[in-house]
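Quick one: structure for this chain?
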Amino acid sequence: MIELSPAPASLPPGRRIYAIGDIHGCNRQLANLYAEIAADLQARPVASALLLHIGDYVDRGADTAGVIERLVQGCPIPGMDMVNIMGNHESTMLEALTGERAAGTDWLFAGGKAALQSYGIDPEGPRDVWAGIIPQSHQEFLRGLVLMHREGGYAFIHAGVRPGIALEDQARDDLLRSRQPFLYSEADFGAVIVHGHTPVKTPVVRHNRIAIDTGAVFGGKLTAVVLESDTIGFLFADPVDEPVSIAHR
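Got it. Here's what it folds into:
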C-alpha cells in the first residue's frame, strides 16, 4: 500500500496526479511502473486521474524507440488523462533531426547514440538519414510536447525555473535546462515545481519544489510522485535489464 504524507501544495478534491520522472529509454522499467500505478488506481479509485511524464524520454538508455512507441499509442492505463512534458533531450533530438550539424553533434554527445541504435541506425553513419528512418509518428509526438502543466498548487516542468520571474514569463531554455540558482532557492515560485532533469538518489520534497528524477538510466529506480488533495506519496519501479528495441529496424 502506498504511504501518504502531507504535501507542500494541494489539488482540487477528486483529482489525483501520477507524475513520472526522467525515463531515458528505460522501457521495461516504465512498463513495470505503469503496473504499479494501475494497481494503486484499482486499490484506491478516484474520480479523475492524470498520468504525467516530466520529460527526457529519449537518449542514454537502450530503448528510446520502445518508450516513444508506447507513448504514441496513448495513455497506457485505462480511465486516465495523459500529459507529456518536453525535456532538454527531446529538444536537442528535434534540433538534430532538422539536419543542423552542430545540433547533431550535440545530440550524439548527450546520449543520442543509444537512441539512434534503438531505431536500427548506425550513429557513425550518415546523418541525413536520421529523419527518414525515425517514424514520423514519433517525431510528431516529440513536436507536440508541452513545456509546462499547471494544476492546483503545482507546476510540472522538466528542469526548473528562474527565481523572481513569473511562471508565465519563464524562458524556454530555463524550463528545459535550469539547475542553478533554482535548486538552492528558497523563493516562492508561484507554485510548487514538480521537476526532473537533475538526478537524485531518492525523491526530494521541499516547500517549493519536488524532484523526481531518481536516475533510472544510471541504475536507479524509476519514480512516480502521487499527488492528491493535500497528500503526497511515491511509487517506484526497480532497475531491470533493458534490451534494445528492434520494433523499428
